[in-house]
Design goal:
This protein has about 280 residues and is α/β, with parallel strands linked by helices. The chain is built from eight helices and eleven strands.
Length: about 280
């Protein structure tokens, strides 16, 4: 399969046709089991289509739908590849135990990344739900890519001030590195806001900085990134900017058109294919 492909269709049969051990990194942002329906207006056609995240069969139906897709993604990863699955409180416990641990093995769980967004999510009868979970698994926990030097973040002002005061421990740390490990709780990446220059009017759009950190950490230039729920195209756009090859899949025509427009603005070189089933119930 050629690199830099945007594919319109149900990702399961598409993944099943791809060769084993053919991708270096997978990021997926599947439906979150919100039991809501989202509207997407396709600027290219002016049609409004529904993104259905409702599950009449409850969590069992959802797990049964997602499990075979993650199993295929595991098959597609190279021996030193990684998978990052983005979810939230609606189903994160089920996803980790019933899908990721079951397919990858608990030994290959590397980290639970917390994307904490400091804006929004106010509540009056509960604590505000203000973070997403990103589960990071390796194909083999003894052999995986992690480029710490590429994702270092600045030290906080207090650490810098202590270093300048001559406190030995802090001075040594600052002398040895150009920054610090961002840790697994990310508070420095803001979600897409209404006035963001990145905004493409897609309801589940993720910020580019989030994908930049993941892609830089777990892949190298000219390696292949796969996003089977391409959505607004953030993974593909960032991978393209960072000199990676990419494959994006989505079953929504509106999503595919958003991705095409976004990638064309970057002057990306890619091929778009259609394998859509018009009767797909998830549309």
């Amino acid at each position: 399969m050629a690199f830099n492909q945007l594919i319109w269709g149900d990702n399961l049969p598409i993944l099943q046709q791809m060769p084993a051990a053919s991708v270096d990194l997978v990021y997926l942002d599947p439906p979150f089991f919100t039991n809501r329906q989202f509207s997407i207006t396709d600027k290219a056609t002016q049609h409004t289509r529904q993104f259905d995240d409702r599950w009449s069969g409850g969590i069992t139906e959802y797990i049964d739908w997602l499990y075979p897709r993650v199993a295929e993604l595991h098959r597609l990863l190279k021996p030193n590849g990684s998978l990052y699955l983005h979810c939230d409180w609606h189903a994160d416990a089920y996803i980790r135990v019933q899908i990721l641990d079951a397919i990858f093995g608990a030994d290959n769980f590397l980290n639970h990344l917390v994307w904490h967004y400091v804006m929004g999510a106010s509540a009056t009868k509960n604590f505000g739900k203000k973070y997403d979970s990103i589960f990071w698994y390796a194909k083999n926990h003894q052999q995986y890519t992690f480029n710490l030097a590429d994702i270092l973040v600045p030290y906080n002002p207090e650490t810098i001030a202590r270093s300048k005061r001559g406190e030995a421990r802090y001075k040594q740390v600052l002398d040895e590195t150009n920054g610090k490990n961002p840790g697994n709780v990310w508070t420095d990446i803001h979600p897409i806001q209404g006035n963001s220059i990145e905004r493409v009017n897609y309801p589940t759009q993720k910020p580019e900085k989030l994908l930049e950190r993941i892609i830089l950490a777990s892949s190298n230039r000219h390696q292949t990134i796969l996003d089977p729920f391409a959505g607004s195209g953030t993974t593909l756009a960032v991978a393209n900017n960072l000199g990676r090859y990419w494959i994006g899949i989505d079953e929504s025509e509106a999503a595919i058109n958003v991705c095409k427009q976004r990638l064309s603005q970057q002057k990306a070189d890619f091929v778009c294919q259609k394998t859509i089933n018009e009767d797909n119930p998830r549309l």
